[in-house]
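Box 3.1 A note on notation
Throughout this textbook, protein chains are presented in two layers. The first layer is the amino acid sequence; the second is a token string describing backbone geometry. Keep the layers aligned when reading.
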Amino acid sequence: MTSPDFRTNPENFCYRHPDRQSFVLCQRCLRTICPECQTQMPVGVICPECLRDQQQAAKVTRMPSRPRAFRSRSTDTRPLATYALVIVTSVISLIGLIPGVVGDAVGSLLAFNSAYLLPGFGLQPWRLLTVTFVHASLWHLALNMLALWALGRSLEPLLGRGRFLALYGLSALGGSVLVALLAPGTWLVGASGGVWGLLGAMFVIGRHLGANVTAIAVLLGLNLVITFLPGSGISWQAHIGGGLVGALVGFIFARTRALRQRRQQIWLLVAVGAGLLALLVIPAAVYG
């Protein structure tokens, strides 16, 4: 179900397939195109008409004496980044769950604790992101990977692989930062921050497109209730931090769709990352 504004706004649908929703624009004509109509180019994706025009122009300007250049026309729109994240996270987490020296070593190297952001404890900032690759149990891993797989299959084709990875990484960073601010010294494992960021971004982008986001809102609410259940052992700081950052990044994507805004979008994402890292000065100063 969608709102009347959403159904009547052609910019929310592929111009060649009006029944297909998309969030990706042709990098040349800026028309909305669905995954089937996208052709991956070095500078982004283009629509079939722009691809044909480019090929015709190349034929006209190509010198007869030169050999014909090889062109890659990849139309693969599978969510490969999502699949890669699920596979890599699952493999590393399963190794970390093996009892003994190997499993303990993986967990001790990748899990997050704000103490490791201080020089006196070795200064290991990579833990802010590697925390997503280790989990506390098979159940914990299965739930997070199922959510990542389900959300990624919808969001990655909508945003593109680069934007999707930026969203996931910044959300995971946001979860770790809020843990450092509100629960310093607490050990953290799991990809929940990144997953909650995907949920937050999907909610904001859906609202921007005029789609009915009731189901996402209910899912967020249920997860929030579970997070605060007594004895759940869940880090609500990581969930809230990831969700808030994901919503912010989703808002940036929704407001900077045009090709002319690409540089602005990149700088805004850089600013979000820099701002999150700057917040780490607070726990270092207070608890260091």
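The beta strands are 39-41, 44-46. The longest strand covers residues 39-41.
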